[in-house]
Amino acid sequence: MSKGLERRKAILSDPVAQFERAVEIREFENQINALFASGTIRGTTHLCLGQEALVIGMASVLRTDDPVSATYRSHGIALALGITPESAMGEIMGKAIGCCGGLGGSMHLCDIELGLLPTSAIIGGGMPIAAGAALAFQIQGNDRVAVALFGDGATNIGAFHETLNLAAIWKLPVVFICDNNVYAEYSRINLTTPIEDLHIRAESYAMPHFALDGMDIDAVREGVQSAVDRARSGGGPTLIEAKTYRFAGHSRADQALYRPEGELDSWKSRDPLLLLEERVKKSGKMTESEIAEMKVRIAKEIEATVALCQAAPEPTTKTMFENIWSRKVSQ
Amino acid sequence: MPAMRVRQAIATAIADEMRTDPTVIVFGEDIAAAEGPFKTTEGLLEEFGPVRVRDTPISEMAFTGAAVGAATMGMKPVIEIMFIEFLGVALDQLVTEGAKMRYLSNGQLSVPMVVRASVGGGLGFGGQHSQTLENWVAATPGLKVLAPSDAQSAYSLLRAAIQDPDPVMFLESRVTYAERGEVDTNLKMEIGKARVVKPGKDLTIVALGQMTNVARQAAATSGIDIEIIDLCTIVPWDKKTVLESVKKTGRLVVVEEQPESGGWGSEVVAAVVAELFADLKTVPIRITCPNVPVPYNGGLEARFLPNPVEVNYQIDQLMATGKAPQPWWTREGF
Questions:
Q1: CB contact B61 to A (< 8 Å)
Q2: With an 8 Å Cβ cutoff, are B25 and A323 in contact?
Q3: β-pair partners for A150
Q4: Which of A45, A146, B250, B331 has the least C-beta neighbours within 10 A?
Q5: Is B173 helix (H, G, I), strand (E, B) or coil?
Q6: What is the pLDDT of residues B264-297, one digit of tens each?
Q7: Overall domain count for chain A
Q8: What is the pLDDT of residues A146-187, one digit of tens each?
Q9: CB-based contact (8 Å) between A330 and chain B?
Q10: Same domain for B40 and B167?
Q11: How many C-beta atoms surround the C-beta of residue B23 within 10 A?
């Protein structure tokens, strides 16, 4: 079994492993943020700080042959699905060891073995693709399910509406998960959208829909599982709205100065990491000191990942001419 | 060999592929029950049923993207964009998603899909249903772009396109749909290979789609011994066949159904100039449409499109002066 598959298996039911993965994502994102700030990494980045419970909860109920079409806010979902930190960070640093050989970058992570389709940097762009994957499964007569993960901003783009309609009319085995983190890029959702509960948009497509608490991993697991079960058993698509909050700005350039005062702090009182920590403490699976040790261990591991990736070789020039067409097309 | 219309050649090619390959599926607007507004999918629903042959909502973005997704998961979708202009609302899915899948998956994914679209003027469909728009898709690494000109090339190239592991844009000249031609269903045509449809020694015409017929008509009444190359594939285009021909004739005329700016013919001219500069007897020229939208009026649309009379005028002037003649709109002061 590959390291990625082992990592995926680990979080399926073990609350300790789920908590650890959340700590890993948090550490990873904080390191990436620092590396961007110091100019070590180029381009842009979109952190998923505060949204860890959603991606881990999703990954823990999906099978590895259930493909996920996600977005440029890709680090968390990739790590949750099992991509190794060196594969993700290597990619973000543009190194050959990265999951896309250093040619994709922060917005384009991918690992087909783990069910992660190339993440799309176009708002809503991955939604029709998830529907198409689901169409393939329906025709092939297997019980695989496709998942689209997208933000609240995507519910205002055509792809969202076209895809929901198509998936509903064809009863496709697909689950649409809207990560409503309150902000679409730099705009608070209420400034761009006349409704608060985005999931009700599925009503006009006669599609089952509901909201869940995206900060609470058990709520995520239960909700996503029910939608996956429906899709797997031929019941068609579901739209889930996970209520989360983006602790960081939209991207590297965004300081998120537009937030109302106190909003971030109020959401931070329900930080998914706090909730996950309480969960393992309450169940007696980890003691205070074990948690403290674990956090130190993971911080060290991520530091080691940074060092490993920084020392890793650059991709060769040849690689930029590969994987464009099925074989080299001379022009 | 059976004679069939271009639209029948297209339906036959899809059906033949569907019989041999159960992963081939077909969807688009009104292509199943109605068999397509141009009857290019005639008989498919009846033979292959509603699981493999589907009508879609009017949602080009969703169904083009669905083709990308299905292709990554082991199917071979053949989708129809009724008029190429409708690709505008779906371009993201083809150019930014589909054509990048192999690259952004580090070679883990293939996207074997065909996007068929009817293109071109001549039928009075007006400014939003008559363009060719090859240049919307020709500058996207990862895509292949084909354009048949007759029944045989429609049949053989479409089969090649469906068998190809990459996303293929298949541009069908709408005006040719009703034209008949003999089709050898055993004849294979390769993506990236042009056809010499008429040999000649004095001048090479490179044409595409319905302009191949215009070139044939021009050559039939010309005093010049013209060689006609039907390019068939725009990406990757067959430089070898074009260069061999121009090396022999020393003269190149490209006939394009597209506004003058940004056409595929510029690529051909640039390559010929770069590689055969010393062999050229006259300057290479392009005969194109003017830089205007496609007019609705029948007389104006006929003027808009390159036609045999203008092609022969341009060729005669070129032969007489050795210089590039002005296009008709410049001659007439527009």
A1: yes
A2: no
A3: A178
A4: B331
A5: strand
A6: 999 999 999 999 999 999 999 999 999 999 999 9
A7: 1
A8: 999 999 999 999 999 999 999 999 999 999 999 999 999 899
A9: yes
A10: yes
A11: 18
pLDDT at site A331: 52
Domain co-membership, B226 together with B167: no
| Alpha helix (H) residue ranges in chain A | 3-10, 15-37, 52-61, 75-81, 85-92, 127-140, 158-169, 189-192, 217-232, 263-268, 272-282, 288-311
d(CA A56, CA A237): 21
Q: Which B residues in the span 141-160 are in contact with A, Cβ-Cβ below 8 Å?
A: 141-142, 144
Fill in the amino acid letter for B250.
Answer: G
- Asked whether residue A331 is assigned to any structural domain, the reply reads no
Q: Write down how long chain A is.
A: 331
CATH number for position A301: 3.40.50.970
pLDDT above 70 covers a percentage of chain B that reads: 100
Contact residues, A window 56-85, toward B, CB-based 8 Å cutoff: 67, 69
Q: For residue A71, what is the DSSP state?
A: B
Task: Round the CA-based radius of gyration of chain A to a whole number and report it.
Answer: 19
Residues of chain A in contact with residue B52, where contact means CB-CB under 8 angstroms, are 139
Residues of B serving a catalytic function are 60, 129
What is the least distance, in Å, from the CA of B53 to any CA of chain A?
A: 11
Identify residue A243 by its one-letter amino acid code.
K
**B121/B173 Cα distance (integer angstroms):** 8
Q: Peptide bond before B236: cis, by omega within 30 degrees of 0?
A: yes
**Closest Cα in chain A, distance from residue B290 (Å):** 27
Cβ atoms of B42 and B11 within 8 Å: the answer is yes
**Final residue before a domain boundary, out of B119, B151, B182:** B182
Tell me what pLDDT residue B57 has: 98
A237 exposure class (CB count in 10 Å sphere: 0-12, 13-18, 19+): buried
The residues near A121 (Cβ < 8 Å, ≥ 6 apart) are A71, A72, A107, A108
Beta-carbon count within 10 A of A101 CB: 21
> What is the extent of the structural domain holding B242?
195-331
Neighbours of A314 (CB within 10 A): 11
Q: Are B165 and B141 in contact (CB under 8 A)?
A: no
Q: Mean pLDDT, chain B, as a whole number? A: 97
Instruction: Answer with the one of B160, B182, B204 that is the final residue of a domain.
Output: B182
Note the pLDDT of residue B2.
Answer: 86
d(CA B142, nearest CA chain A) in Å? 5
Contact A82, A114 (CB under 8 A): yes
| pTM greater than the 0.90 cutoff | yes
Minimum CA–CA partner of B75 in chain A: A136
pLDDT digits (tens, 9 = 90+) for A22-36: 999 999 999 999 999
Q: What average pLDDT does this structure show over B299-320?
A: 97
| Domain span holding position A29 | 3-321
User: Are β-strands B226-230 and B195-198 bridged in parallel, bridged antiparallel, or unpaired?
Assistant: antiparallel
Beta bridge partners of residue B80, listed in sequence order: B28, B116
Structural domain count of chain B: 2
Can you give B27-95 as a three-state secondary structure string? EECCCCCCCCCCCCCCCHHHHHHHHHEEECCCCHHHHHHHHHHHHHCCCEEEEEEEEHHHHHHHHHHHH
CATH number of the CATH domain containing B223: 3.40.50.920
B235 touches chain A (CB under 8 A): yes
ipTM: 0.94
Specify the 3-state DSSP secondary structure of A244: coil
Residues B111 and B236 in one domain: no
Give strand pairing partners of A180.
A243
In a domain, B188, yes or no: no
